[in-house]
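Q: Could you fold this chain for me?
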Amino acid sequence: MSMINKKFLTGILFYYFSYSYSGFAQGPQNLSFEPIQGTKPRNIIFILSDDHRYDFMGFTGKVPGLKTPNLDRLAYEGAHFQNAFVSTALCSPSRASILTGQYAHTHTVVDNQAAAPASLIYFPQYLQKAGYQTSFFGKWHMGGGGADPRPGFNRWVSFAGQGD
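A: Sure. Below is the predicted structure, expressed as structure tokens.
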């Protein structure tokens, strides 16, 4: 990935996380987005894996013999955030924080059973406002783990609970 592409992606993520707190008070219908002049949309693939140790990918070189060619290619041709951390040790609050840019005391998903409030705004809603088509594939695992579509995704493929 070229430096320009990485700067664009970093700019989009910075824009999202900088303004997500003010977005909490407004409804989803009031989302605003101001394009960055001189940039063009890029493809974004955001992968959030559950119970995945930070160094369990082949390209890190931390685990001898571990081969993850597809993740390695994504890291080499895209962006890998080496210092990404979560503020809670539980799945659901961490997912809510990643998707909203807020701490658990603000988004109120404080454990693995707490429902996500309907007022939450997820970063894919901002991407939609910017003209992106968004998709979600996998387990949602917030608010009881239901499989119903959530705001911000044009395509939704999910399952209830842990997929048992």
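A (continued): Helices lie at 3-25, 69-77, 91-100, 104-107, 123-129.
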